[in-house]
Amino acid sequence: MIQRIQSVYLLLAAVSSGIIIFFLPLFQSKAGNYMILQDPIFFGMTVLSTLISIFSIFRYKNRQQQVVSGRINIILNFVFFGMLMYMFYETFSKDGGAIGTGAFIPLAVVILVTLANRGIMKDETLVRAADRLR
Fold first, then answer.
1. Smallest Cα–Cα separation from 73: which of 53, 47, 58, 59?
2. What is the CB neighbour count within 10 angstroms for residue 27?
3. pLDDT tens per residue, range 73-120
4. 133 in a domain, yes or no?
5. 5-11 average pLDDT score
6. Residue 58 resides in a domain
7. What is the C-alpha to C-alpha distance for residues 98 and 49, in angstroms, rounded to an integer?
8. Would you say residue 35 lies in a domain?
9. d(Cα 92, Cα 77) in Å, to the nearest integer?
10. CA-to-CA distance for 77 and 38, rounded, in angstroms?
């Protein structure tokens, strides 16, 4: 299960969205750092993204379901990143704030899940080619 490269990508996506984002600030302002735990919607989206990645790792026998859950995770993280940018430009940019490194973790998760989906699709085409030869 974990020996497949796409499982490693999904594990890295789960770690980055589940652990790393709690240590990196989303935004920085004069009042201090704005962390993920200060907003329940962002926290919920992070937890959901982590759970989808972990769910997808354990669905290695059903590659089609892995791809679908990966696409859902990609959409979720694009929406999450869009909401972060909207909040930054509406709230923190007026006060002279800066975007923190934690705000770019959803983009890293999108890249990792996209790489995982490519690996899953390669496996699927390999299995279909082997089935055709029988």
1. 53
2. 22
3. 999 999 999 999 999 998 888 878 899 999 999 999 999 999 999 999
4. no
5. 93
6. yes
7. 25
8. yes
9. 21
10. 18
16 and 105 in contact (C-beta within 8 Å)?
yes
3-state secondary structure of 29: strand
- How far is it, in rounded angstroms, from Cα 1 to Cα 111? 21
Considering the domain boundaries, does residue 134 fall inside one?
Answer: no
For 34, the 3-state DSSP assignment is strand
Q: In one letter, which amino acid is 65?
A: Q
CA distances from 119 to 6, 65, 105 (A): 5, 14, 21
How far apart, in Å, are the Cα atoms of 112 and each of 4, 57, 80? 14, 13, 16
Query: pTM for this structure?
Result: 0.90
Residues in the chain, total: 134
Number of domains in the chain: 1
Q: Which amino acid is at 126?
A: L
Q: Using CA atoms, how far apart are residues 56 and 103, in angstroms rounded to an integer? A: 23
Contact of 96 with 31, CB cutoff 8 Å: no
pLDDT at 133: 61
Which residues constitute the domain of residue 99? 5-127
